[in-house]
Amino acid sequence: MTEDIDRRLTAAVASRRDALVALTQDLIRIPTLNPPGRNYREICDYLDGRLSGAGFQVELIRAEGALADSDAHPRWNLVARREGRRSGETVHFNSHHDVVEVGNGWTVDPFGGEVIDGRVYGRGACDMKGGLAASIVAAEAFIGAFPDFSGAVEISATADEESGGFGGVAYLAEQGWFAPSRVQHVIIPEPLNKDRICLGHRGVWWAEIETKGRIAHGSMPFLGDCAVRHMGAVLAEMEANLFPLLAGKRTEMPVVPDGAKQSTLNINAIHGGEPEQDPDYTGLPAPCVPDRCRITIDRRFLIEENIGEVKAEVRAMLERVKAARPSFDYEIRDLFEVQPTMTDETAPVVRTVSDAIEKVLAKRPDYVVSPGTYDQKHIDRIGRLKNCIAYGPGILDLAHQPDEWVGVQDMVDSATVMALTLAELLLPDRQD
């Protein structure tokens, strides 16, 4: 019986190959750029039409009052639910619909959705509209083959994952959409490669460090106090002591790539002195000693680390600089923090997806942890739902790159894995 179910679902997904490609192309062609948050309602309306036509009950939810939500760029989310004919558990596929800026270096139309040599190209193809399309086709194939399933299938398309997810999954989790009483299994089709299951991610702390100075005429800098020079001392202290300290911290988490198995810190931005003028300004800057300089730091930490210690290391670094520079003054402001998370390998969704991967790809999957966070953080932290993983088509290294693409066969294989997972979890009589 089980082998017959597997064959039927494999054939059902394969027969939808062209539809899967077309759906991915349609999604890419809606430029849901974040920031600022363009075309969120358009993509939700498109998916509403598609999923309503497949028998799903669809709700469009605006994250009113959430971070970045505005009348100019409202944060729209979609949740679609298809009830089975008997009671049972709910399997939820969550994908974000926003994409990052295009950037330079493209050789194809970033919103063209071109198919070249078995690859669909475009911004968001890999991260993660190919995964969203694969989950929809998997659900349609499963429901078409086994309409008498138990429980429910849910599909969501959510906002702002690329900028923290607060107008998307975090908002939905706060409203109870991911409560364990209504959803039992969550799969996030992020592009972690079709033969890998992502159990979670490292932690993150973003902060802004500002060094303070005193403004003066640029011809008499000795009458002022240069905040940029103070920041230069901070950067030098980072290079001399903080970066080596972080490089010595290693984790037992299966983080990929290997370089992310250590603690890391990225300097995201630096701003000092006069603000940049508009592009059409043709004059020179005024001669002033800068009285402020700011950097934004992006600190990724390990499950073995404590967030309090992470922050204390940076403050200790700043205090060392202060002790060596009598006029040094600084301020540090928290911007954002997330604890590391990792689902246990014995969790039901992990075991089920692992078995499906072995059936489709004839190999056991690798278990990995993402170097960066994704929306599992909100499902875990706010929703209190631990039975959650990331699994989807696409090569992680292609995310946010020019000429981003997703392989057609990778999408078909991943959709087949998802369909077999639905059968395992929602067909309790499959062994009869």
Q: What is the residue-mean pLDDT, rounded to a whole number? A: 96
Q: Give the helix/strand class.
A: alpha/beta
Proportion of strand residues: 15-25%
Strand order of the largest sheet: 1-2-6-3-7-15
Shape, principal axes of CA atoms: elongated
Number of helices: 10
Give Rg in angstroms: 24 Å
Which segments are poorly predicted (pLDDT under 50) over 5 or more consecutive residues?
Answer: none
- Give the N-to-C terminal Cα separation: 7 Å
SSE pattern, N- to C-terminal: HHHEEEEEHEHEEEHEEHEEHEHEEH
Helix and strand topology:
Blueprint: H1 2-14, H2 17-28, H3 40-53, E1 57-62, E2 76-83, E3 86-96, E4 115-116, E5 119-121, H4 125-145, E6 150-158, H5 169-174, E7 185-188, E8 196-201, E9 203-212, H6 227-247, E10 264-272, E11 292-301, H7 307-324, E12 330-338, E13 341-342, H8 348-361, E14 366-370, H9 376-381, E15 388-390, E16 405-407, H10 408-426
